[in-house]
Design a protein that fits this description.
Helix content: 10-25%
Number of helices: 4
CATH superfamily of the largest domain: 2,3-Dihydroxybiphenyl 1,2-Dioxygenase, domain 1
Oligomer: single chain
Strand content: 25-35%
Number of strands: 9
Order of helices and strands: EHEEEHEHEEEEH
CATH topology of the largest domain: 2,3-Dihydroxybiphenyl 1,2-Dioxygenase, domain 1
Amino acid sequence: MHFTSVRIITDDVARLVDFYERVTKASAAWANDDFAEIRTASVTLAIGSTRTVPLFAPGAARPADNRSVILEFLVDDVDSVHKDLSGFVEDFVNEPTTMPWGNRSLLFRDPDGNLVNFFTPVTPAAIEKFAR
């Protein structure tokens, strides 16, 4: 089994794609107006319109309704990313903070309210865990 993607359902695909292209510095591949993918080295972020939900099961997903999942991205320097995103990201949940497990984390919300965590390992154990 291979975990290949995370899909966000939204009422405004273009707005969310623009946001994630900016924060990830990756370009989206558009299948059509209702679906785009942003591919990173490790996973694909798929963004789909609410119009695609009935293809799976009507009512199975609701946009801007997530309060349990955090999308996490490993970055080289979370403090630098924070400076770059200041003035663009409207809802920072926290400033860069070193967590007890050894990652320095920046938590913010995307335009639909989904939580996004950019983090950099900073302790020897965390650095070893994420060594590439």
